[in-house]
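Our collaborator T.R. sent over the components below with a one-line note: 'Predict the complex.' Nothing else. No constraints on interfaces, no templates requested, no preferences about which chain binds where. So this is a plain run: every listed entity goes in together, and whatever single assembly comes back becomes the starting point for the next discussion.
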Amino acid sequence: MFKSVHDKPGKASDMTVFVNGAETAAWNGETVASVLLRAPGAERRSTVSGEPRLPYCQMGVCFECLVIVDGVASTQGCLVPVAPGMRIESQHGPREISK
Amino acid sequence: MDCDVIVIGAGVVGAALAYGLARKGRSVVVLDGADRDLRAARANFGLIWVQGKGSDAPAYSALTRQSSDLWPGFLNELSNISTSRVDYARPGGLVYCLSEMEYANRHAVNERTHNQGAQADTEMVSRVQLERMLPAVTLGPDVVGASYCRLDGHVNPLQLLAALHRAIAALGGKILFRNPIDRIMPVSGGFRVSVSDGTLQAPRVVVAAGLATPGLTEPLGLAMPLKSERGQILVTERVAPILPFPASGLRQSADGTVMIGATNEKIADTAVTAASATKLAQRATRIIPALGSARLVRQWAGLRVLPLDKTPIYAESSDHPGLFAVACHSGVTLAAAHTDVIAPAIANGRLPDDLAPFSNGRFNVQKCA
Ligand SMILES: Cc1cc2nc3c(=O)[nH]c(=O)nc-3n(C[C@H](O)[C@H](O)[C@H](O)COP(=O)(O)OP(=O)(O)OC[C@H]3O[C@@H](n4cnc5c(N)ncnc54)[C@H](O)[C@@H]3O)c2cc1C
Ligand code: FES
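Returned assembly:
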């Protein structure tokens, strides 16, 4: 998919995050949604149509970027900056509310 | 004449009537208003609700039960004709009681309704019983119990409205949106209204324009005493199924969103307020504390269409035969009765005597049918 503009040969990334367990390079100031756009297999399934979805509006209105971030489901990935070691997992159903 | 019946208002009331008329083979044209009109049909909570309804008005209570029983067959046919999906379920419904006093009051409402001869279909359930009915949640400490009516259900009201619109078209009816009518002109053999590209004439007119109804019928001497009441609703993000029963003020849609509502406010605009959002969220989290972790995605307000005594008005003009007016709260609940009972009566040209308790004459106003 996409490639980060910071991703230049010979230049190290700022941090590593985990997308569905896979180590993924990330840069300061980018959002979880931008990582999702370049990580393979990082789409979620729409709970309505069952279709695969990726972040769309990048500004918090479309909810296409819902993802599990450090265990918190239904997080809008486009509103959350990355942090070193962050665990990002695709969400395939509606969020579970704890009992 | 351009058609058999003109229906003014394509909300859930006008649309259910127009669909019922079309099913009876009448040619109908439905005229709807301006973009910024009030539309309870697009702002409501989606309950098909029997318990407590008409607890002081036996005819209303009976009509509500009848409609609730007609709903499954009504929806089945509507889904087929409109080829649309409409989420509907009738698992029975709850009214949560958050204190001994609420429990006692609720019990009294049920007794009153049953004493009027309605079949005993509502029972009080204890907290322990409730816990068994709702295995996916932990109830808040204030929950004492609930009343449960096995007839209650819920529907996606926007899908319902869209299906009615599609079914009208499928049966050969026409809906003209953005076609506000400023007045109804009696002409020989019927009525005339102006539409955007000319005029339309029909022997019968049904006014179902929500809160705008009196403004159209009163110049013709047909009084429709209505008041409005604001209701605000909150909606959460979609979450996994936790609420198998719709409740008064708290239901989970088939898509997973949790709807929380609705306030009862004597205010005539559709603004939303933080105070009401707080009140609604507080009560919902007293019932199910875990809802506090669900994200709210929308809040809106609508105005209820309330006859002064809350009972529906089915009126026909004596001065102008062929002029009918319908206004009610709970137009979703009554949609099946409107299609299967009221529309056929209008198609026959007369409201039958057993609908007399719903006439506008009951208000003892100067002019009445
Ligand atoms: C907050 C809230 C919650 C509710 N919850 C429930 C519930 O859970 N269950 C239930 O059964 N009911 C519920 N209701 C009630 C239900 O929504 C109403 O009874 C119903 O929608 C009324 O529909 P209507 O078609 O009469 O009015 P509206 O939806 O207001 O439609 C009136 C239509 O008439 C049109 N119109 C107006 N003036 C003109 C004109 N001059 N010319 C042409 N067209 C015109 C408008 O454009 C509009 O489309 C609720 C209502 C509210 C506000
Ligand atoms: S991408 Fe649209 S809300 Fe996040």
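Summary for T.R.: The first helix of chain A runs from residue 32 to 36.
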